Amino acid sequence: MGQKSQVAGSGLPSSLATPPPPFPGSGRRFAPTVGKGTPQSGGDITGHLTFPLVSVAFLVSFGSSMLYGYNLAVVNSPAVHIKAFYNATWSHRYGHGLTSGSLTLLYSLTVSIFALGGLVGSLLVGVLTERYGRNVVLSRSTVLVLLASSFMGFSRELGSPEMVIVGRSIMGLHSGICLSVVPLYLGEIAPKNLRGFLGLVPSIFICLGVFFAQVLSLPELLGNDRFWPLFLSVGVVPASLQLLLLHCFPESPRYLLIEKNDIFGATAALHRFLGTPNVQDVIEEMKEEQQSLSSMEMVSVWQLLWDRSVHWQTLSVVVVNAGMQLSGIDAIWFYTNTIFENAGIPASQIPYTILGTGATEVIAGLIGCFTIEKLGRRPLIITGFCSMGICLAGLTISLLLQSALPWMCYVSVTCVVGIIAGFCMGPAGIPFLMTAELFVQSHRPAAYIVGGSLNWLCNFTIGFIFPFLQMSAGAFCNLIFCGICFLVALYVYLIVPETKNKTFMEISHIFATRRSFLSNPSRLIGMMKFSGYGALESMEGSGSGSSLP
How confident is the model at residue 343, as a pLDDT? Predict the structure, then answer.
C-alpha cells in the first residue's frame, strides 16, 4: 500500500498513496472514537452547494422523479371518465356494457399496471447503469415517456382502452428505472455532508408531481370528460426538458473512476460538480473504495442475497422499501376520492380538499429536505412511520364513528393529511437514499434492484387489492397498514444506524464491526438505542460499556 495506485492511466502523484488500512478494505485513517462513538474521518471531503449540483438535482428530479408522483395520482380524479370510456367502448364492440365487478377489475388493472411496469424497470437498473452509466440511462429513458404519452393521449380517438393500459405500463417502466437511478446518481455526485439534502430533492418533486396532478385534475382544467387523455399525457413536457438538457452535465465521478478506471473524467466531473480545483481528498476516498473492491466484480442480486457480509444492510433495505409501500400511502394516493366519499365529504368539495392534501405533501417534503442534515435520517423516518401509524388508527376510528357523529368526517380528512405529511417528511425519500448509503459500489446496483423490485411489487399489490380489501374489511383495512408502520419504525429504531456525514466506507465499517460483534457467542446482546442512532450494545459483565459504533 506504500506504492502508487496501479489503476490504469491514473497518473496519480505519490502523495495519494494510502497508509495501511485500519480495517479490511479501507485506506482512510480514523481518529480514536470520541463523543458518541462515531469514527471520525481523517480527511475532510465535505463540500458546499454549487450551481451544477443544484441544477442537475432539480433537472433529474423534475424530469424523472416528478413523473412518478404525477402518475401515482393522475388516475384518481378522472376515474369516472375513464370507466365511462371503458364501458362505452365495450358496449360499442360487444353490444353490452361491463358489469360492475368487471369494470372495477379493469380499472384496478389500469391503476396497478403502472407498478408492474415499474417492477420490470427496477429489474433492469443494474445492467443498464453498469453498461451505460447513470446520466445516459436517465437521458435515454425519457423516450419511454414520449411513447407512453402518445399511447394514452390518442387512446380515446382510436377507441382503444388497451392503449391506456399499455401507456400506463410503459410509464411505469420509465419510473421503475428512474426511481432507482436518480437517487443513485445524486448520491454519487454529492459530497457526504450534502447527500441527505440532495437525496431528498427527488422526494420533494414526487410530492410536487402529486400536487400538480391534483391541480390539473380540477374540473375547470383537465379533470373533465373532454381533456382526460391530455391529462394522462402531460408528463411529456418535463421529460422533453430533461432529454434536451441532461447531456450538459457530466457522468457520476464514482462510476467513472471505480467502474471505468477513468480518473481524468472523474476529476473533471468533480471539478464541475464541486466547483473547486482541490478534489484530492475526494479522489483518495474513491480510490480507497476502488482498492477495497479490486478483487471483486459487480455482484448480482443472487450473490447479494447470499452474501452474509452484507445481510444486515440487505435486510434493512428490504424492510424499509417494502414498508414504504405497505404503509398504505399508495391506497391514499390511488383512491383519495373514494376515501373522501366514504368519509362523507360532498362530491363538489372533494377536488379542492385533495388540493389541500397536495399542498401539505410539498410542505412536509420541504421540511424533511431542509432538516435531514441537521436531524439525521433515523429521526425523520421513525417519526414519519409513527405519525402514519397514529393517523391510520385515527382514520379507522373516525370512519367507524362518522355515522353517529357527522363531524367525524373532518377528523378523517385531518388523519389523511397527517398520513401524507408523515410519509413525505421521511419515508418518501429516505429508503432510496438509504439504499445508496448502506452499500459500497460493487453491491449498490444489485441493492437497488432488490429494493426497487420490492417497492414496485408492494405498490402493485396495494393498488390492485385495496378496492376489494376496502369492500370486505371496510374501515378496519387501515389497521393492517397501521401495524406495518409501527413495525418498520421499531426495526429502524433497533437496527439501522445513522449515516449522516459518513463516507460509504465508514458506513461499511459500522456494519463490519456489528458482524464481528455478533459473531462472539460469549456476549449477551441487548437490542437498544445507543449513540443517538441505535445499535447492538454489549451487556457483558457489569456495564462494561463496550458497544458498537
Answer: 66
Q: Are strands 30-34 and 535-538 parallel, antiparallel or unpaired?
A: unpaired
* Cell numbers found for residue 204: 420533494
Q: State residue 190's pLDDT score.
A: 84
Residues 111 and 334: beta-carbon distance below 8 Å:
yes
pLDDT of residue 36: 37
Contacting residues for 198 by C-beta, under 8 A, at least 6 apart? 53, 57, 186, 187, 189, 190
Cell for 353? Answer: 380538499
Pair 337, 471 in one domain: yes
**Cα separation of 274 and 125, whole Å?**
26
Say which residue the cell 429504531 belongs to: 493
Classify the C-alpha dihedral 333-363-479-435 as positive or negative. positive
- The type of residue at 185 is Y
3-state secondary structure of 108: helix
The angle at the Cα of 201, spanning 379 to 312, to the nearest 5 degrees, equals 45
How many Cβ atoms sit within 10 Å of the Cβ of residue 162? 11
Q: How far apart, in whole angstroms, are the C-alpha atoms of residue 387 and residue 439?
A: 28
What is the chain's alpha carbon radius of gyration, rounded to the nearest angstrom? Answer: 24
Chain-centroid distance of CA 28 in Å reads: 30
The alpha carbon torsion through 532, 528, 432, 270 (nearest 10 deg) reads: 40
Pick the closest to residue 342 from 403, 251, 276 (CA basis).
Answer: 403
Residue (of 294, 423, 425) closest to 367 by Cα position = 425
Q: Could you give the C-alpha distances from 442 to 45, 255, 377, 516, in angstroms and in order? A: 21, 10, 23, 21
DSSP reduced 3-state for 527? strand
Neighbours of 254 (CB within 10 A): 25
| Residue with grid cell 405533501, as numbered in its chain | 361
d(CA 125, CA 449): 6
Residues 6+ apart with CB under 8 A from 83: 103, 107
Where the chain has pLDDT below 70, the residues are 1-47, 292-297, 333-335, 338-339, 342-343, 441, 463, 504, 511-549
Torsion sign across C-alpha atoms 389, 391, 397, 400: negative
Contacts of 389 (CB under 8 A, 6+ apart): 482, 483, 485, 486, 489
Which residue's C-alpha cell is 417519526?
A: 383
Query: What integer pLDDT is reported at residue 293 of this predicted model?
Result: 63
- Residue 222 has which C-alpha cell? 383537465
Cα–Cα distance for residue pair 259/143, rounded to 1 Å:
26
The partner residues of 30 in beta bridges, in order of sequence, read 41
The reported pTM is 0.70
Question: Does 443 lie in the same domain as 327?
Answer: yes
Can you give the residue range of the structural domain that contains 182?
Answer: 48-249
What CATH number corresponds to the domain at position 243?
Answer: 1.20.1250.20
**One domain for residues 75 and 190:** yes
Position 152 scores a pLDDT of 92
Cell numbers for 435, please give them: 439504499
Q: Please give the Cα distance from 429 to 207 (Å, whole number).
A: 10
- Asked whether residue 363 is domain-assigned, the answer is yes
